[in-house]
Design a protein that fits this description.
203 residues; mainly beta; 15% helix; disordered N terminus
């Protein structure tokens, strides 16, 4: 029993010395916990009039017309003001099949309750009607920033085709314009819109 007690005490002492050694003793707790910088800022944008984009069928035709009021939340670096991320979608959504060259129906866009959208209350979204979430947080592996523009690709197609959609946005003072282009020319899983189809103002 004495031998067992001795080895237990020796083991505890060794562990304590190891922890002290790993800490290095060269930095204080205050220096290891210093903030990395100011927190990002968030901007709320919303369209007051209905805008339209299209869901494509397997032939690449515009087959479903999706209409709603666009909204966006932009995350910025507070120092450089560069856009770091964003969330974008439409509220008060309606959808309709439209005639197309190949007479082939498209797949309606998935919708969700507006109450499940981040910042739903601050954006004053109509919670009695469905919404779409076109671009989610963290879905943009690359995001190119310009002076007053930002662009990115999202989505993924089977067979290594690549991304589905190319999004482009431009800002001027308190106005934001945007559009989306399908870039999947094999499976046509992306969506499409006219140039500068989405118009929003800063709240």
């Amino acid at each position: 029993m004495k031998i067992k007690t001795f080895f237990m005490a020796a083991s505890c002492a060794f562990s304590l010395l190891a922890m002290i050694g790993c800490s290095g003793g060269s930095t204080s707790p205050s220096s290891t916990n210093t903030p990395s910088g100011p927190a990002p800022t968030y901007e709320l944008w919303k369209g007051s009039i209905a805008c339209t984009y299209y869901s494509l069928n397997i032939y690449g035709d515009r087959a479903v017309q999706v209409t709603g009021k666009p909204w966006m939340v932009i995350k910025r670096d507070p120092i450089t003001l560069l856009v770091q991320d964003c969330e974008f979608g439409f509220s008060e959504v309606t959808q309709a099949q439209i005639p197309n060259a190949d007479n082939f129906a498209g797949t309606p866009e998935p919708t969700l309750a507006a109450t499940s959208i981040d910042y739903c209350t601050q954006l004053q979204l109509d919670t009695t009607k469905p919404a779409t979430l076109c671009v989610g947080w963290g879905s943009k592996p690359t995001l190119a920033n310009g002076v007053q523009t930002f662009t990115f690709h999202v989505g993924s197609s089977p067979g290594g085709v690549g991304y589905n959609e190319s999004w482009n946005f431009s800002l001027l003072s308190s106005t934001l314009w945007g559009d989306v282009t399908n870039i999947d020319k094999t499976y046509y899983l992306g969506i499409d819109s006219n140039s500068k189809a989405f118009s929003l103002i800063k709240l």
